[in-house]
Each structure stands twice: as C-alpha cells, then as structure tokens.
Amino acid sequence: MRHAAWLPSLLVVFVLAAPLAMAQTQPAPTQAAPTQPAPTQAAPTQPAPAGKDYIIGPEDVLDIQVFGSNDLNQTVFVRPDGRLSLPLVGEIAVAGKTVQQLQDHLLAVYEKTVKGAVVTVIVKEIRSRPVYFIGGFAKPGVMQLTGDLTLLQATSLVGGVVAEADGEQGFLLRRDQKIPIDFNRLAQRGDLSQNPKLEPGDSIVVPLAEAVYVNGEVKKPGAVKYAGDLTLLKALTQAGGLTPLAAGNRVDILRGGAEKKDRIRVDVDRIMRSPDSNQDIRLRPNDMITVPQRRF
What we know:
Layout: H1 2-25, E1 61-67, E2 74-77, E3 83-86, E4 90-93, H2 99-110, E5 118-125, E6 130-135, E7 141-144, H3 151-157, E8 170-174, E9 177-181, H4 183-189, E10 203-206, E11 211-216, E12 222-225, H5 232-238, E13 251-256, E14 261-266, H6 268-273, E15 288-291
Parallel strand pairs: 6-10, 11-15
Antiparallel strand pairs: 1-2, 1-5, 3-4, 6-7, 8-9, 8-10, 11-12, 13-14, 13-15
C-alpha cells in the first residue's frame, strides 16, 4: 500500500521533468549570422515600356480589352494613315493620341452599350518610333524609342562600337541634317556635346574603318585600322613590333589595285636608327606590309 501511495507522485514528477530534460538535451537553434547584402549589379539600361502617356503612332499594334464583353476584345494594327476600325466605334483616328486618351474615349463609347464596361489599351508592339543603327555597331539594326534615350544609352543597348569601326567619323542623320558624331570623344572622354537625345526616325551611322595589313615577323600580325596620319613605324608598333627573327632592313609594302601592285622596299632598321635623316613612310588604305625573316 505504501508503494501504491507514492507511485502516482513519482509518475507526476517524471512527467513534469521529461520536457525539461528534452529541452536541455536538444541543441539550441542556431542563429544564422547576419549576411551582408550581395552587391547589386546595375541592370543594363533598357527602353522603358510604353506607359499611358505614350503617343500612339502609325504601324503600332494595340491590344484593346473590354471587360464585360469578350466579343469586343481586339488586337489591332494602326494603319499608315493613323486610323483603325473597331466594333461599335467604327473608324477612329488614333495617331497622336496618348494611350490614356484612347482608353478614355473607348470607355465613353462602350459604357453606353456594355454595362459596367472597363476598357484597357495596351501597346503590344511599338513600330512607329524607329531609330536605325548602321555600320560598325556590335548589333546594328532597328530600335524602337519608348521614351527619352540619349545616344550613349542607345549605343550601349546595341553593344557599342566595334574595334573595326571608324568611331571618329560617325554621324547622325536627322531629317535633312547630317550631325557629326565622334564616338571616341563620347565613350572615352565623356564629351556630352556628342550625346544628343534621340528622336524617332534618326539614323546613326559609324563607317567601318579602312585598314592596312601587316604580315610576317611581327608579334600581332593582322589588320591595323587606318588613320590619316598612319605611318609604317606606327603600323608596326600597333602590330606589336618586330620579332627577334625579323629582317627589318627588307620590309616590303605592296600598294595598288587588284590588277597591279607596286612593291616598295623599306629599311625599317635604318629609319629607327636615324629617324632625322630617314623619313618614315606614310601609308595608304589597303597597303600590305610584309616583314620577312632574317637569313641565317
């Protein structure tokens, strides 16, 4: 009986002590050390999507939705005359209107026949604000302006000017104007006088540069971009200079058209030894320079 009397008390003590023991034996939840936010990389600038203040133009594609009447939902093409045709509306001129103005006009028409109508106008494709990139760009082609964009911003979107381009001779065609653009001053020096705001219909042109070609015993054979003051020594320097095996006294320049080429023999070693008494050779576009190997 004495055992029976204290057994329930012992059971109560065990039940109360068990959770405490489990709490002491279980590992405490580890608190993660505060992490530093990862440095964010600026997303490349993209033309902003067309908003409600976007001005609709010819050849734009619009998605018109009328909630409450699916039969009135339309994807329509703005004709070159700036007009389109819609059910219950008929012919309507939309070019020159903002998206919000067109949406308000359609709502005023449709709510007369559709109870609780809600109209949404979305510009599905912009085709009325083209800017053309021609020539020495990484991704030449057409870009549609959806908002304000400068030449520098737009150039970054088309991959920049390629190495083979003559960036100093770029230009912008705007209506009947030809505006010179020096992309070297724009990109390398940040010259904002070369950074106009673009307008629909602009054409930006960067001609591909003419070149001379360096072969043989130079460290980086290949094409060298031609500039008006390019000389033989400058071209060889841009090609990495002569190799230890080069015969600098027997450098040849091939010059001329496909039918006839003249060979000009130049002693580059002599020019480098006595530049005052031996004039450097001014090059012409498409000159081919060959540096032979020394004879052993």
